[in-house]
Amino acid sequence: MAGSDVDMAELAESFKAFAIQGDTKATGKDMTNKNWAKMCKDCKVIDGKKVTGTDVDIVFSKVKDKSARTITFDQCKTALTELSAKRFPKDDAAQDKTFALIAGKKPGTTGVTKAVKAGGVDRLTDASQYTGSHKERFDAEGKGKGLEGRVDKADTSGYVGAYKGSGSYDKKVKK
């Protein structure tokens, strides 16, 4: 099943990149149907004529384990082999061509919302123009200080919370 012209390490790296896309808990060892469909779409396996999104979903369901919701890298190669027969019919190197479409690719960011820097937005997000107590929330470079910049820390050094006479106990007690 190994392609002769395609580097399997690159294919594995692409699989891992697409597998972790959009999921903070993903390890990259298995891929969900959503990420599988994104990989097929971004890498042009889905051409809209011979291979459609429905075909991709059907092949995913066919190759995954019965109770599983994800596919492994080996199952992904099996699914791509099955799709390659539809994508490149009557071609002996169909599998290699399909693997080559994916090898070395990373998930795209088309359609992702960009940060707007127009009108009053850039003025509002410029920390150097802040005054008063808001100015204390940022350091010299404009980076936020986090909790230290927002919350007044209580002095808990006394033996009772908010004790104002810290360190004066020994002075009050006569020996």
Automatic annotation (TrEMBL):
State the GO CC annotations: cytoplasm; microtubule
Where are the residues of the annotated region Disordered? 128-153
What Gene3D superfamilies is this protein classified in?
EF-hand (1.10.238.10)
KW Cytoplasm (keyword) present: yes
Q: What residue spans carry the Basic and acidic residues bias annotation? A: 133-153
User: Mind listing the GO biological process terms from this record?
Assistant: microtubule bundle formation; microtubule polymerization; positive regulation of protein polymerization
What is the protein name stated in its UniProt record? Tubulin polymerization-promoting protein family member 3-like isoform X1
Q: Which organism is it from?
A: Branchiostoma belcheri
